[in-house]
Amino acid sequence: MARNLDITSLRSFVAVADSGGVTKAAGYLHLTQSAVSMQLKRLEESLDVSLLDRSNRSVSLTAQGEQLLSYARRMLALNDEVYTRLTAKEYEGEIVLGVPHDIIYPYIPPILRAFAADFPRVKIRMVSAPTTRLREMFGRGECDVILTTEEHPGPGGEALVTLPLVWIGAAGGSAWKQRPLPVAFCKNCIFRSGVLKRLDDAEFDWDMVVDSDLDNAVEAVVSADLAIHAAIKGVYPRQTGPIAHDGVLPDPGQSRIVLYLQADDDPILTTLRDMIRQAYLSEWSPQDTIQLTA
């Protein structure tokens, strides 16, 4: 007699595998930890195999779990495709998505591609602007969904991942050795005040060498070795890179990627939200340094 795998249990299994733990998976699925654990147990019992190695503090997959993960992803994708194709035909309109330029890659392009496939009649208009401007636009209702880079989420914001900031400069440059320390931040940079405060707290003399609202002005002076800048680790403008200062410079701090959604009862917006959540559930760990175009 044919036996059937439970799609809900498979979805919990994939969420745990992607997030590295039951707690994060439960948050993403809007379930309790006990409910997720019960679904995993039911799945293991139905297959009569152990899928997760629970011997360590972090959850990892067994050999059988790794084998199932590939099948589970395909089954969920097909399930979701069938459901969307048969139920989402009435959805149409426009969604405005706001994202700062330095976190567009690597996740936003595949999210846009997947969303367009599921909702071909819904147009996504993407706005790329600094976090402060995106928050203002969101407050005026001009954006439906925004991602921001902030140390602390604002009202209604959901922190997806915490990222370290690093000092960056021109490749092979020496600007970081100068005193006062030449730094460059555009006026709208969300990192600016926090990083400068860290320099002040460390009694580090600094000099702001750019006065601009535009990121490309900052990138120009940094790539010319006239100043240094703080950026999210792994995402650097062209002709720049992390500075190997061996602790000479103060720690610039960290930032969070925060998600804001206008209406959590809109099925289209919640689908986009879930796609974004899924993309950021796994740890931010780009395999290669991401170079931003100037």
From TrEMBL:
Residues of the signal peptide: none
Organism of derivation: Litoreibacter meonggei
Residue span, HTH lysR-type domain: 5-62
Name of the protein in question: LysR family transcriptional regulator
InterPro entries with a match to the protein in the record: LTTR (IPR050176), LysR_HTH_N (IPR000847), LysR_subst-bd (IPR005119), WH-like_DNA-bd_sf (IPR036388), WH_DNA-bd_sf (IPR036390)
GO molecular function: DNA binding; DNA-binding transcription factor activity
Family: Belongs to the LysR transcriptional regulatory family.
Superkingdom of this protein's organism: Bacteria
Annotated keywords: DNA-binding, Transcription, Transcription regulation
Keyword Cell membrane: no
Classification of source organism: Bacteria, Pseudomonadati, Pseudomonadota, Alphaproteobacteria, Rhodobacterales
Gene3D superfamilies hit by this protein: Periplasmic binding protein-like II, Winged helix-like DNA-binding domain superfamily/Winged helix DNA-binding domain
